[in-house]
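User: Quick one: structure for sequence A, then sequence B.

Assistant: Sequence A:
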Amino acid sequence: MTATAPRVLLVEDEPTIARAVVDRLVAEGFAVDVAADGPAAVDMARACEPDLIVLDVMLPGFDGLEVCRRVQAERSVPVLMLTARDDETDLLVGLAVGADDYVTKPFSMRELVARIRALLRRVQRPAPDAASAPHPPVLRIGPLEVDARARRVRRDGREVHLTPTEFDLLACLARNRGAVLTRAVLLEQVWDWADASGTRVVDSHVKALRRKLGPDLIRTVHGVGYSLDSA
């Protein structure tokens, strides 16, 4: 993060939407750069090194999923996807290539700003200090090893690459091993959301974790939430 205004890269090819988002973000105190297609977005992300990217899925050149994949391969940066398609497969693909959150069009500017601020707060969190942390720096649950300080995960000794949000969600479940955490609690602790309006983002990230870690660790308690148990 910069010491002054957080820098946001907005990638949006619809001029009306782009102008409205830029005006609101500038009014909220952000510095904003804009790209209107996939290749320009990748070049600009490399040049301006934004603190966060707001990224439309449907773009000329190549789509937002490919932009996210290329940007994350070079530098880890929080990504908030904008999508007009409220389809679970599209959302899972976005999460798989490194997106942290998504907003479905049409969206309110208030919701967009709240999601951006919440995501920036999360990436500013300091790493846990080994001397003062209430939990050991490395949590071992069955075949799973979660290293909080190094932010690394292994299953059966094999390292598993997780996005920042996936790691935060897994670490939250690991710290509360065996307890059933509701979606509202997970939204508050992982996403810093004060309401439970985004429960699908929790479900989508859990599905992404299961694809990477296997289906046997995270248990669904229907009507309640999720629990991390030993396999």
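Sequence B:
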Amino acid sequence: MNQDRRDRLRDAAVTVLAESGGRGLTHRAVDAAADVPTGTAKNYFPTRDALLRAVAERCLEQYRALAASLAGAGPGPADADGLAALLAGLLRDVAGPGRPRVLAYLELRTEGTRRPWLAALLDPIAAADFAAHAHLLRAAGLPAGAERARALTLALHGAIPHLLAGAPATLAAAGLDDLDRFARGLLATVRPEGDR
């Protein structure tokens, strides 16, 4: 099969899932989003599970590409200010250009509650964040024990749905209306008193 067309269909499926949710992810909708003849997506991904798997694999590829680009940017931020800037940038990506990918990923996580094979396929994405954040804490010269890395990761993950929804009162209440301030405050929270 044509790999370029397959990737085009997978990218279209990510877009459809992000825009229309799980119920809107149909072969016909993917065909329309990819601007290909009706039936093309079904030829590449014959079942709904195959279509979900294709989206999950594409999200995993995109996540790994993002992680590789961050790793390729050097050893990581050299201090807490650099790490706060990086975290704020990642959150801006969630609310901006990365929004479709993250929305699709969250839709897949919901589908994964009913499809264990899908949850297993997505597991490396979330699991990798804990190690990545521990590495970033260490690179910035901050305490990087498992508890601090967990607290940082879970706080960032918890912020994501609020950023995606964009409700102003909630963003203000969570401190997400100023992502730079939020990231600095989050790092201050995961640091022990003696290390400040």
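The first helix runs from residue 3 to 24. The chain is about 80% helix and 0% strand.

User: Thanks, that's what I needed.
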